[in-house]
Amino acid sequence: MTVIQKIENNGCGCDDLARLGSLISIDEGLAQIARLTQAVRETELVPLSQAVGRVLAKPVRSLGMVPPFDNAAMDGYAINTGDLSGEGPWELSVAGRVAAGHVPSNTLKRGGAIQIFTGAPLPDGANAVVMQEQVLCTGTHVRLHDAVKRGAHVRRAGEDMARGKTIAPAGRLLTPRDIAACAAAGHAEVCVTRRVRVALVVTGDEVAQQGEARGAAAIWDVNTPMLCAALATPDIELCSVQFAFDTLPALRAQLDALSQQVDLIVTTGGISVGEEDHVKPALAELSAKIAFSGVALKPGKPVSFGHVGRAVWLGLPGNPLSAFVTWQIFGSALCRFLSGQAQRPVRRRHVVLQHTLHHKPGRCELRLARLTGFDSAGREIAEFAEATHSGRVSLLPEMDGLLFIPADTEELPCGALVEFHPF
Ligand SMILES: Nc1nc2c(c(=O)[nH]1)N[C@H]1C(S)=C(S)[C@@H](COP(=O)(O)OP(=O)(O)OC[C@H]3O[C@@H](n4cnc5c(N)ncnc54)[C@H](O)[C@@H]3O)O[C@H]1N2
Ligand code: MOO
């Protein structure tokens, strides 16, 4: 039997914050990011063919009617239905021919037909097109057996877009669908927000770059390639990718320089409470304003956010799964706000658990999950990792998203509905 658990709330699940000290909830963290992030103001014109993934700074409106003139929707014959009075069949004399891209050289005479091809302008005097499969053509004449409705197979001028119709609003992240509509509306270029300038600073004496020699106590750097990949979107200019050793003066100098050059500094590692965690001390020396420092979630508890110089700062934990998850939840939202995007692309939805889930009460847990199909009620079913290990990434390639396990939950039964954040 499938047990359906009632959905208690639609929040992030970090409801039991009392015993987690200064940590805030995921939703509060997102709200602070929304409140404290200014969108980039500068705009630029880009060719429409290069605009996918950019954010519209001004609405796009149709420059004229689309289609611009009445035209044929089928290959056949342009006729006037007024010529088909009484009982059929009717015979019309063919006088002329018009193909797509050509202006009709003659108007339709009474009792006549003009051969026409899909997309060609409808000749004056015609009010319908009859498909060539529905006539018998004798060379000089066409014979029709069936009546034709006025307007049949005619695409009317302006039926898709009136002049001035808003095709895409400001704040829209342009997709190929938007590009199609903007192209039909006659635009060669669109006005978009300039790309968000981002710097990535990966800290840690222990990380080594793939392809180089790795010391006895070193590990491969996961965060640099992972976050470079996540930042490789058309609305972001990844200006600088830096590595930082765990030394305060050098890190302070790096962050100081970047804080005058970019809109967003993303750091990984060095934000926990150990003596080797120098990111927050460095920011403190630079008089940074820290909005939040720690969120009641697992993985990713130390995730932090603030402002330094002219930049916003997002501090991700060093553990690679923690960095990935916090980028998914906070980093992508932050980039949306910086680039002026109006819509929220990822919406949490509810999925059904494939089997019983166990969780240690404390922080809201974002557990890796994979969608496996649908139940008999058409709801998505998720299977999930047994536990969350913030240093492990081997499951990531086969996972589809994150289950939001509320903080105070100990067990959720098979069939329970749980919030799911797709990647
Ligand atoms: N006493 C406490 N210790 C820790 C706490 C705590 O509350 N009290 N929190 C733990 C949690 S939770 C997390 S998450 C980590 C986060 O620490 P940091 O953000 O300061 O990260 P690091 O200490 O620099 O590194 C953590 C871990 O990740 C590995 N790492 C770092 N960078 C990379 C990279 N680019 N690629 C692959 N792996 C990376 C690093 O070697 C460490 O193993 O703190 C806990 N400690
Ligand atoms: O928050 Mo940490 O990512 O739990 O290990």
TrEMBL record:
Physiological role: Catalyzes the insertion of molybdate into adenylated molybdopterin with the concomitant release of AMP.
UniProt enzyme class: transferase
Cofactor: Mg(2+)
Biochemical pathway: Cofactor biosynthesis; molybdopterin biosynthesis
GO molecular function per UniProt: metal ion binding; molybdopterin molybdotransferase activity
GO biological process, one term: Mo-molybdopterin cofactor biosynthetic process
Xref: SMART domains: MoCF_biosynth
The protein's name: Molybdopterin molybdenumtransferase
Pfam (any one): MoCF_biosynth
Catalytic activity: adenylyl-molybdopterin + molybdate = Mo-molybdopterin + AMP + H(+)
Residue ranges of every copy of the MoaB/Mog domain listed in the record: 199-337
InterPro entries cross-referenced by the UniProt entry: MoaB/Mog-like_dom_sf, MoaB/Mog_dom, MoCF_biosynth_CS, MoeA-like, MoeA_C_domain_IV, MoeA_C_domain_IV_sf, MoeA_linker/N, MoeA_linker/N_sf
Keyword terms of this UniProt record: Magnesium, Metal-binding, Molybdenum, Molybdenum cofactor biosynthesis, Transferase
GO cellular component, one term: cytosol
Superkingdom, taxonomy of origin: Bacteria
Entry EC no(s): 2.10.1.1
Family designation: Belongs to the MoeA family.
